Each structure stands twice: as C-alpha cells, then as structure tokens.
Amino acid sequence: xxxxxxxxxxxxxxxxxxxxxxxxxxxxxxxxxxxxxxxxxxxxxxxxxxxxxxxxxxxxxxxxxxxxxxxxxxxxxxxxxxxxxxxxxxxxxxxxxxxxxxxxxxxxxxxxxxxxxxxxxxxxxxxxxxxxxxxxxxxxxxxxxxxxxxxxxxxxxxxxxxxxxxxxxxxxxxxxxxxxxxxxxxxxxxxxxxxxxxxxxx
Length: 202
Prior knowledge:
Elements: E1 12-18, E2 27-33, H1 51-64, E3 67-73, H2 75-81, H3 83-96, E4 104-108, E5 119-123, H4 131-154, H5 160-163, H6 169-178
Parallel strand pairs: 1-4, 4-5
Antiparallel strand pairs: 1-2, 2-3
Helix pairs in contact: 1-4, 2-3
C-alpha cells in the first residue's frame, strides 16, 4: 500500500516526469498536492497501471487534488540543456503552476536541482511508494501521451499513437525510412551506430 506522507503535518507535493527516454517529443513533469484523506485502489506507478486506468485516475486526481501542475520542456530545449537538466526544468515548471506552494517536495529519482527555498527529498522508485508521486507520474504520463497522439495525426508513419516516441523497432525503422521530424531529439542516438546518415532535416 502506497504512503500518503513522507512528513506528517506539512504540505507536500509529489513530482515525477514522463518521456525521458523517448527519441521524439517533449519531456513532461507533474507536481501534485493531495488532500490528507486521499486514497484510491488503482493509484500506483504509472508504468504499473493500464492506459484505461491511467485516464480514469487522471480525472480523479485533477478533480480531487488540492493542487496540481504540469510542466513541459520541448525537444529543442532538451537538445540544448540535455535530458537530465530538462527533466529537472520540467519539474520546476510544474511546481511553478501550483497556486498553493508546498512546504516540501517529494522527487521521484536520485537527483534534483533545488527549487527556490523549498526543501526536497529524492526517493528512488518513489512513484511506487508515495501516493503524491504516483499521482504526479499519472498526470505526466497521460498529458504527454495525449500530446504524442496528436502528433501522430501529423506524422502517422512513426507509430507515435502506440509508442509515444519511445525507441521501438518500428520507430527506429521509420526514422531510417523517412528521416527525422522537427519533433525528434537530435542530441539522442536516433539511428543505429552502423548507419552513417545525415540527422539534419531536408
């Protein structure tokens, strides 16, 4: 059973990101402050929840959370500052969206750039341990998936409706066949090493 609080008696926001390992699209992050009596049997790390249940949970979280925010960092920004810093920036932007600032941040992972003067705790696997981080993982994942499904309409050949920009075989084969789009992360290894191809858009 996931825990509601790391520290009792203070306002905590859970933070998590989605899309860090993708070849295309932005990285998304969410910050969520849950009410003190919140619980839901379906809520878990987004990777352990079906797509249908993630979408159900998104509505519940957005309706019942004390506050929530989603931050986005574009693929161009990722190429400029690298994906680790982009993940931190996405979390900062998500926290920026909170109207009620928390006293403490719970961060999924082992590293984080401090946000202003708010104390934080990094927790490896935190999305499977704390409800607020799990809720953040659900929002980050569902908001990003929704965006990638919209991009799929413009670029259906890459299979983004299903792979959401992750490096599946179909996605890599489509890059070899069609080249890259303005949504691809040029700083990532988009092609297999044996292919000496021009990464620049025609």
